[in-house]
Amino acid sequence: MTQDHAFIGRQPILNRQQQIIGYELLFRLNKEALTAEFSSDMQAGTNVLVNTISNMGTDWLVGSKLAFINVAESMLESNFLELLQPQRVVLEVLETTTATPELLARIKELRSQGFGIALDDFEVSPQTAPFLEFANYIKLDVQALGMDRLPEISKALRKYPVLQIAEKVETKEEFRKCMDIGFDAFQGYYFAHPETLSAKVINPNYANILNLLNMLRNNAEIRDIENALKRDVALSFKLLRYINSVGFGLSCEIQSFRHAVTILGYQKLYRWLTLLLVTASTEAGSPPALLKTAVTRGRLVELLGSHLLDGQDRDNLFIVGIFSLLDVLLDMPMDRVLETLILPESIADALTERSGIYGPFLELAEACEDPDMSEVPRLCDQLQLTPDMLNRAHGQSLLWVEELGL
To answer: Residue 113: which domain range?
Structure first.
């Protein structure tokens, strides 16, 4: 498992009142990159997609605004787009896209699912005209088309029920002219240069993704899939963040990994894992000690509470333990980590304050990692644990992690 940073460019799109209605999300290879340099449209598309739904989260990137995402033919034809929340995403069809009957049918299908459709760098021609039937937005490049031609082009497009966006607006004068022409929205350097956002990420193990894909292909028991997720901190965290990012978790709290898999379903989970596989590092190697500690702690916290709690509470104990090091792994305060997830308040209390029903069990697991173990007697007494029960739980958790091959 490797640690890395995710990067994404973001430029606002504003309405006539200069209020932000959305952000175009742009591929960025690193923090210093000012443009999108990539080896293929598919590479850029999958990178933006996985950063949007798993590494950073839609809420953090665009808040309640729309996310405008460039999609080339290869991405339009893939089923990765079904992982997004349609009502919050506008798909920008690139000017290089060919209007084949198959592609037009696909765009029609995506629009019926609730996606917005934008035509990027649009120029009217017999080749591009078929797209107009399915578009919600048309983006016109002010610099490429020229201010002299814009009034005529804009007027000709008004017979279509689309919002017109003037892009690459670079001066106050260009903005004023575009307002006079009647454009509905604007994007360009005059308002804001694209900013590059970054987030520290933990990448799942390549072999673990392959294993889970194989299990799903063979329709494995949900219990076995849950156990496979438990062995990979990165996968389990990304799964819960994804469910929250696309809106599954907005009406309910995720109670366990089994619950997460049930909400998502095998087909969507398979698509999500496939997307991760495309962007995962093949140089994963052995997991670092910190990740192994997180998995061990998850099992230990679960076992420490097994004499007092069962069922759903035991699942929650495992989540408390395995997620207790996410602040260190992601290099951010725990309260910020929890903003990207929707978890029961009892889990959040344990992770942030070591309080509530689960907090003391996590506190004891952490005390066991302290060489002098000075707090262990007090916590064991509080939790009605004998030294023998503690030693047995500790040994079992270490054995379990070894059996996982971590």
So the answer is: 3-198
Structure confidence by residue, pLDDT tens digits, 148-190? 999 999 999 999 999 999 999 999 999 999 999 999 999 999 9
pLDDT in tens, 186-245: 999 998 888 776 666 666 776 678 778 878 878 889 989 988 888 888 888 888 878 876
173 and 218 together in one domain? no
What does the block give as tokens for 121? 């760098």
| DSSP per residue, 104-119 | HHHHHHHHHTT-EEEE
In this structure, what DSSP letter does residue 124 have? Answer: -
Helices (H), 137-288: 142-145, 150-157, 172-181, 206-217, 222-230, 233-245, 257-264, 266-279
Alpha helices in 51-196 (DSSP H): 58-62, 73-77, 101-112, 142-145, 150-157, 172-181
Percent residues over pLDDT 90 in the chain: 36
Q: Is residue 284 assigned to a domain? A: no
pLDDT at residue 35 tops 60: no
pLDDT value for 360: 95
Residue 28 and residue 175 share a domain: yes
Task: Tell me: do 22 and 106 sit in the same domain.
Answer: yes
Q: Does residue 319 fall inside a structural domain?
A: yes
Task: Determine the pLDDT at residue 365.
Answer: 94
Cβ atoms of 380 and 392 closer than 8 Å: no
The pLDDT tens digits for 262-279 are: 888 888 888 888 777 655
**Same domain (yes/no): 188, 219:** no
Angle at 324 between CA 261 and CA 231, to 5 degrees: 45
Q: Which of 254, 279, 304 is the last residue of a domain?
A: 279
